[in-house]
Amino acid sequence: MTTHKFLPTDLIDSPLADYRKPEHLTSENRLLKQLTKALVERVLQAEITEHLGHDKHETVTNSTGNARNDKSRKTLKGEFGELPIEIPRDR
């Protein structure tokens, strides 16, 4: 399996299977926007896991008793337009 830096080729090829023209990547709710949303939300999940010291659904082990407390919705605005994301909360 060929890779591009850290991404396996099949990971790239699968979402591009229906690609025919640039609009398929860049138009509203298309691949680039979906990937950006997924990456940002995954990073936020990893960040809160590191902050809390335990994975989701694990026993709270930090001395403050701080734990996940649902999600809130935010909208990122950038060159790609508006991107609604879910931000994990803690208490």
- Characterize the largest beta sheet: strand count, sense, and whether it forms a barrel: 2 strands, antiparallel
Helix % is 25-40%
- What percentage of amino acids are in beta strands? 25-35%
Strand order of the largest sheet: 1-2
Number of strands: 4
Number of helices: 3
| Count of distinct structural domains | 1
Radius of gyration: 17 Å
Shape field = elongated
pLDDT average, as an integer?
Answer: 80
Given as residue ranges, the uncertain stretches (5+ residues, pLDDT < 50) are none
Q: What's the end-to-end separation, in Å?
A: 44 Å
Q: From the helix content, strand content and strand pairing, which structural class follows?
A: alpha+beta
User: Which sequence of SSEs, written as H and E, runs from N to C?
Assistant: EEHHHEE
Explain what the structure shows.
- This protein has one domain (23-90).
- 34% of the residues lie in helices and 27% in strands.
- It contains 3 helices and 4 strands.
- The strands form 2 sheets. Strands 1-2 form a two-stranded antiparallel sheet.
- A hairpin with a 2-residue loop joins strand 3 and strand 4 (81-90).
- The model has no long low-confidence stretch (mean pLDDT 80).
- InterPro entries: Transposase_mutator (IPR001207).
- Residues 68-80 have a biased composition (Basic and acidic residues).
